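tool_call: predict_structure(chain=1)
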Amino acid sequence: MTKIIQTQKEIEALIVDGVIDIDDDLVVGCDIQIEASIKARNIKALHIDAWNIDALHIKALNIKARNIKAEDIDAWNIDAEGSIDARHINALNINALNINALDIKALSIDARDIKAWNIKAWNIKAGNINYYAVCFSYQTFECNSVTGRREEGCKHFCLDGDIIIKKEVKND
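tool_result:
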């Protein structure tokens, strides 16, 4: 049964030993900020600020967490201090230490590492990509710009295709 939360107090009441563990879906009708981890099948919320999030699907406007593990993440902004491990990520902005995903779709990706100093994805479709050492895709790699930050050298490539740098369309 879906658990519906309308207040910060209700979400805090679910914390047991630093974890909110729900065997079903979680719908949050308010902004939440907790010093705990969230474990649920699906999470739908406006703003989530939690230690760790583990869910099958996450849909939120803003997500801020140490670590995020989900099959699908659909969010406006994702800000993770630790790792993001997902099958599909759809976001406007992603700021994270580590990202490991099958597909990354975002306006901007600013990540120091993705799976051991790399951006590693099956498909990358993004506005601007900023990475530390290595950024690669297996099948498709499409973006407005791609830039490495490592002074000693860095590399971006697509194993089974070409990198397509899109021209930004400016409306006058």
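agent: The chain has a mean pLDDT of 84. Proceeding to next step.
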